[in-house]
Amino acid sequence: DTKKDGALAAADTRPLTSLGIPATTSATQDAMHARLGALGYRVGQGLAERFSAQSPRPQTPLDVIKFLCKDLWLAAFRKQIDNLKTNHRGIFVLTDNRFPPLSKMSIDRRAGSKARDEGLARAQLYLFFPSGVIRGALSGLGIEATVTAESTELPSATFQIKTKGAKA
Amino acid sequence: MATKAARIGEEVWKSRVDKINAEVVTLTYGTIVAQLCRDLTVPNTINKTDYNAVNKELDRMGYNMGLRLIEDFLAKTGTGQCSNFRETAEMISKVGFKVFINITPNVSNWSKDSDSFHLVFEENPLADFVELPDDGRAQDELWYSNILCGVIRGAMEMVQMQIEARFVSDVLRGDDTTEMRVTLIRIIEDEMPPDDE
User: Fold this and answer.
1) Matching Pfam families, A to Z (chain B) (predicted)?
2) What is the mean pLDDT of residues A10-36?
3) Nearest to B102, CA basis, from B192, B194, B20
4) Minimal Cα–Cα distance from B157 to chain A, Å?
5) Residue B41, domain CATH
6) Do A43 and B35 touch (CB under 8 A)?
């Protein structure tokens, strides 16, 4: 059928990366991102279990998020989250001004906005795993949430946590 | 020699290495191995893990790490060429392992011609709190920490040594010790490109 043929043709004309390997399709990329998130989720669950064992269980969602920003972040990244914002209706925004996994990355500033976008896109790959860690840790402490992450300027990273039933 | 390597390892570990929580590493590595065990199955089965394939994949991942890690190793430690394979063994154990995962496996069981030795792991951060799957096969087939073999192989290849590294025992399997056999295959000579005048 034509739809299938169209998809195949698209796959054949995929642009090549600098290494000569065809660039991944968006479908493979989505699967890869989901996979990275799932790996992080399991790690987050384990970390939350391990590092909350000695302390009383956080009672409110805000307490859980604070535990995440302080204790868990310290354990995983040797620093705390720099800024926490919330709308008090289930949405939390965590900003790490110097997120360790991104701290050694750089962008060629002379090459303009294209280089900047490419650099940020490369950095984005490194945010799926930590997003999964957050999601897993929250789940271990009884909060269902979706987490999205982005970096608009290296080496900072912003994680947006939207708990189940949150109102924007 | 052994004490000199130990001194370098200790010094670099203390002053020049960014550290990360060991449990984060343990958990992350465990998650990766578990995922591989789910992904790599015997053809035409749904959930029968092909442990041989998992071992190979871990080794391959390690190899790619080793190829890059040696650069960092040389930069951090400032060490030069080893004069013989015994010295190399000390460097791997007391500097390499020390600097990157803060352990120093014992070097022992040298072969008569000094081209092969055992690394004996008294501790192994990768395998803390780990239990192998209870499917009656993992105990005999999976080399849980196989990534380490690849790392050594990759790193050594970048300094002109082709080696073979493989685990021969693992406490996770119920053995008394965790030991890896490292064998020097050949020194890789610089080869001129063909027809290069």
Assistant:
1) TRAPP (PF04051)
2) 72
3) B20
4) 22
5) 3.30.1380.20
6) no
Nearest to B28 among A35, A43, A75 (CB): A43
Please tell me whether the overall predicted TM-score, pTM, comes out greater than 0.95 for this model.
Answer: no
- The two structure tokens encoding residue B22: 């060991």
Cα A21 off chain centre by? 26
Interchain CB distance below 8 Å, B24 and A76: yes
Q: Cis check for the bond before A155: say yes or no (omega within 30 of 0).
A: yes
**Is there a domain that residue B195 lies in?**
no
pLDDT in tens, B86-113: 999 999 999 999 999 999 999 999 999 9
Count the domains in chain B: 1
Give residues with Cβ within 8 angstroms of A62, minimum separation 6.
A86
Helices (H), chain A: 2-12, 26-52, 61-67, 73-77, 112-124, 128-140
Q: Name the strands in the sheet holding A83-86, side by side, starting at the edge strand that comes first in the sequence.
A: A83-86, A91-96, A157-163, A145-150
Which residue from B21, B24, B31 is facing A42, i.e. has the nearest CB?
Answer: B31
The per-residue pLDDT of chain A, averaged, comes to: 85
The range of the structural domain enclosing residue B66 comes to 2-187
pLDDT of residue A1: 44
B194 found inside a domain: no
> How much of chain B exceeds pLDDT 70, in percent?
98
* Whole-angstrom distance, CA of residue A65 vs CA of residue B78: 43
ipTM: 0.81
**Contact predicate A134/A161, CB 8 Å:** yes
Q: Chain B partners of A47 at a C-beta cutoff of 8 Å?
A: 23-24, 27
